[in-house]
Write a structure and sequence with these properties.
Elements (H helix, E strand, L loop, with lengths): L8 H18 L6 E6 L2 E4 L3 E12 L3 H5 L7 E11 L11 H7 L4 H24 L2 E12 L5 E4 L7 E5 L13 H4 L1
Antiparallel strand pairs: 1-2, 3-4, 3-5, 5-6, 5-7
Length: 184
């Protein structure tokens, strides 16, 4: 909810997002991304955004800990996918699959595709960030339908929509390399 302007942030996010999309495309993940045009612009396929934010969590932190009694920093037994209704007027509430189907945003088989793609992205990015000595704690994705109706990854992937922790931090203290540096 905090808003702040940081010089060069858009350029950095564009560069990171472009690199991540290039990596995902190499691993056959369907995306809207075509190419980076310049330091702060990308060319992307037009998509109809599905009004669902998909959050995958590898480690408990943030809202999961506020809504449960799970201790922040707890490694989850398996990745958890939470779905949020993308609606600013309602403050993007956590939403069930049944409510998603009631609102007719997406069909059950399409939601299953979204979840499978999300898990595949998690596997790719966990390994990628591990090689950079970073832990991928969690991330948010958005999906859309391309002109043929195919479900594809859209939006961005940057430190604005994920949590990355430095694996080289000292004294067991969490050192965030993402949006939490600003929040905290």
């Amino acid at each position: 909810k905090k808003k702040q302007i940081f010089k060069g942030k858009g350029i950095l996010n564009c560069s990171i997002s472009s690199s991540i999309f290039d990596l995902l495309i190499k691993h056959k993940i369907p995306t809207h991304y075509i190419k980076k045009i310049n330091e702060n612009s990308i060319l992307a396929k037009k998509v109809e955004i599905i009004p669902i934010e998909v959050v995958l969590r590898n480690i408990a932190y943030g809202s999961l800990c506020k809504q449960t009694n799970i201790v922040p920093g707890t490694k989850l037994k398996q990745p958890l996918i939470d779905l949020y209704y993308k609606n600013d007027n309602l403050n993007d509430p956590l939403i069930t699959s049944e409510r998603i189907f009631l609102l007719d945003f997406i069909q059950p088989e399409e939601l299953q595709v979204v979840k499978e793609i999300t898990h595949n992205i998690n596997n790719i990015l966990k390994d990628f960030f591990l090689r950079l000595n970073l832990t991928l704690v969690d991330f948010k994705l958005e999906f859309g339908r391309d002109s043929s109706g195919k479900i594809i990854l859209a939006d961005e992937f940057s430190p604005d929509n994920c949590r990355l922790w430095d694996r080289n931090s000292k004294n067991g203290k969490i050192e965030s390399l993402d949006k939490d540096r600003f929040r905290n």
